[in-house]
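Exam review. A common question shows you a sequence with its structure tokens and asks you to describe the fold in words. Practice with the pair below. Do the first one on your own.
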Amino acid sequence: VYVIYTSGSTGRPKGVVVEHASVGAYLERAREVYPDASGTALLHSSVAFDLTVTALYTPLVSGGRVVMTELDERAGASGQPTFMKVTPSHLGMLEALPQEISPSGTLITGGEALLGEALASWRSTHPDVTVINAYGPTEATVNCTDFHIQPGEPVSSGPVPIGRPFWNTRAYVLDDRLRPVPPGVTGELYVAGIVLSRGYHNRPDLTAERFTADPYGPPGTRMYRTGDTARWTHTGQLT
């Protein structure tokens, strides 16, 4: 369905080949868990950034409306959105803009680590909005885990958890011998399931290196080595 180029940690752009089935599975789940997408979504990001998949296609499969605009003072001309996705770096911009440009229902953050301190100021003026911290590399089709912060729920300082894997996703925290580590122990995060992309365009060597056989899934399935460290909490959340 699309190829998005990402430099990752190597600095050399690599094209991630994402299939229709993966995007369809992502949107099927998004339609269920993001009900505010059936209202109005404000889309401010480039289609070259997979953050756009959530804000563009989720409303369209949910009976919603998409307003495409720059994230500036004119963004509120079509009324207050109910649904928006941003990076944590956008929170300062939203604070500087009129309050009605921020969503009234759900704000999803993704693309970068979210700190409680970065969220606190914006949330103090929008206490009734549900905030969802989403995690996922482009190789796992936009996002593959998320953590829901309900209105009025306190948020501690420091990194906000990335939550639990989607219902169509498996997440493993493994040691250097691909063995699961116990809760509270840091390991490398691997993801598996229908959300995985096909691999890297014309890069079979890199695809084979990062997309490996999943020893914990059904025969023939793969898992993606994210390169990110994570740990399970004792309540079953990833952080």
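Now try the second one, then compare your answer with the model answer below.
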Amino acid sequence: MKRMPVIFAAHGSPMNALAKTPFTEALTALGNSVPHPQAILVVSAHWETEGTKVLYNATPPTIHDFYGFPKALFDVQYPAQGPLNLAQITQKLIPGSKLSEKWGLDHGTWSVLVHMFPNADIPVYQLSLDVHAPPEKHIEMGRQLRSLREQGVLIVGSGNIVHNLRQIQWRDVNAKYDWAVEFDAGIKKALDVRDEKTLAQYMEKFGSAAELSVPSPEHYWPLLYAFGASDEQDKLSYPFEGFEMGSLSMRTVMWS
């Protein structure tokens, strides 16, 4: 079985699920470029828990975890099956984690996968974000997932390196703030040289640019899992780079 790559996919606005843009076209191309997965494990910014949970549901529901959007977005379904055996294997890889039926596929997962794998014919499950774990622990949990790549599992972290909803420029989709560009470029440089200390201690490294770019950590953390699941032998690439509405970095990363 061919070793699977690891992906950190930006997701931005839920409306990207319905859009056809250079970003969503890049997701489609990315899905077409990777080996066919046996299953997909997503670490989404939108499942935060006390401790770490592994989704254990044979028919995970499509969760519309937002409000104020058009009906067409709420009509989207992603009826992928859940790989129960792999969920059990994954739970054993992360000490102290627990299986959970009480979730489904949230929009951090399906808004990306509708472009990468639109047929929903690959089993999908999720790993939650432990709200009490420090950045270093999120990287370590990514390492603990690394062996899944040998079993045909595509590991996808879904979030945004820069994610500040209060600073969004709704009227200018192509806007970008200087602080957002600074932080995104600094994290790219850290990824390029596998600078784990900078990735974990981003607040100390980037100061106010980090405070503005990561006002809360849940959209940044999935990057740390993807980084942890990668290794020095992987080739690093950036399938998409850019910003939406000033304060959302859409940088997407692949290790293969």
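Model answer, second protein: The chain is about 35% helix and 20% strand. Residues 6-255 form a domain with the Protocatechuate 4,5-dioxygenase; Chain B fold (CATH 3.40.830.10). Full marks require stating both points clearly.
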